[in-house]
Amino acid sequence: MATPKRSWLDGPQIPGEHDDPFAPGAWPGEKLGLPQSGPSSLASVARRAVGVFIDWFFCWMLAITFVRFTDVLGSTPTVTLIFWVILGIVCGWLFSRTPGHMLLGMGVARIDVGGAKVGLWRAVVRTLLTAFILPAAMVDSDGRGLHDRATGTAVIRG
């Protein structure tokens, strides 16, 4: 993209005014090549948070049932976390979406190779980083969490 011609009347050029890689795009996901809305557009932070809540609630209900029969893995909160991590890794790896993603019409996609599955290592790293909460809560200018940036993925609609 050519830089527009400037004259001395325009004043000094502000650093990063043109072609700044850290500047936000016109819409979330534009710099990733994703559409502004509809299928394959970037899912909002609120929608992703609700998806995590659905998954957590599902695992919590399973943990309550599991703990009634045995306490070999610990109490309900510990078992809930263990089930949530297993759910995130297995579903992310095999289906590129968790039950919460599926109910809200989302999925995890690789941004480096369109249409490719997430893969085991990406599913493991994404889930473990999300379990620490901070990487998922810290988002870039596109609204992607740091766990998605670290694994080269994005949560998209559709």
Automatic annotation (TrEMBL):
InterPro entries registered for this protein in UniProt: Pra-immunoreactive, UCP021697
Superkingdom of source: Bacteria
Keywords, comma-separated and alphabetical: Membrane, Transmembrane, Transmembrane helix
PANTHER family, per database record: PROLINE-RICH ANTIGEN HOMOLOG, PROLINE-RICH ANTIGEN HOMOLOG-RELATED
Lineage per the UniProt record: Bacteria, Bacillati, Actinomycetota, Actinomycetes, Mycobacteriales
Transmembrane segments: 49-67, 79-96
Protein name: RDD family protein
Keyword Chloroplast (UniProt): no
